[in-house]
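Q: What would this chain look like folded?
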Amino acid sequence: MNTDYLINALVADTRRPAMQFAYVWAGAVVLAIAVAVIVFFATLGLRPDFAAAVQTPRFLFKFVVTISLAVGAFVPARALSRPDGQWRKAIPFLAVAPTLLAIAVVVELFLLPSGLWTARTIGKNSMVCLTYIPLIGIGPLAIFLAVLRYEAPVRRTLAGAVCGIFAGAIAATLYAAQCTDDSPLFVATWYSIAIAGLAVIGAVSANALARW
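A: My prediction, written as structure tokens:
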């Protein structure tokens, strides 16, 4: 057998799984976003004053937090789905969104009179938030769990939890376009609880479904 041909064949063989892995995740993310968008517009839709809201910094900041969380969760979710993934290097990406939100909360507490802190934290849509972020995010989570089952995660529980955070961040990004509670205090409280719920579901489900 020609040695050069053998070497080229071996190199090509090692590339195929990596390329296939990338395509699987790309397809999963596109499908997850599509499912979330369909559920969002079928159940909620944009807030009535959306055009005016996009001109306010608090409203726009919600998207900074949720999108940075989605990106920060995607990196470790992708790494954790493979047995050879460098997930320890990817986990710190998850800290970006909470850090930004913590800074915003401190600024909000500094700017607002203390008498308004409780009202802004509770808001008007806490139960709506706790209902619709999981509702919008459960479809994307199911898709990401299917990817975990297809791949070979070693730390199934952690992988499932991170996939839940990723799904929750996608759902929260869409929900933020309808939510009229724009205070970082509200986002830090209720968005976090809703996303944490999906993380728990993801952790429990992955431990059962992603065995190999």
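The radius of gyration is 20 Å.
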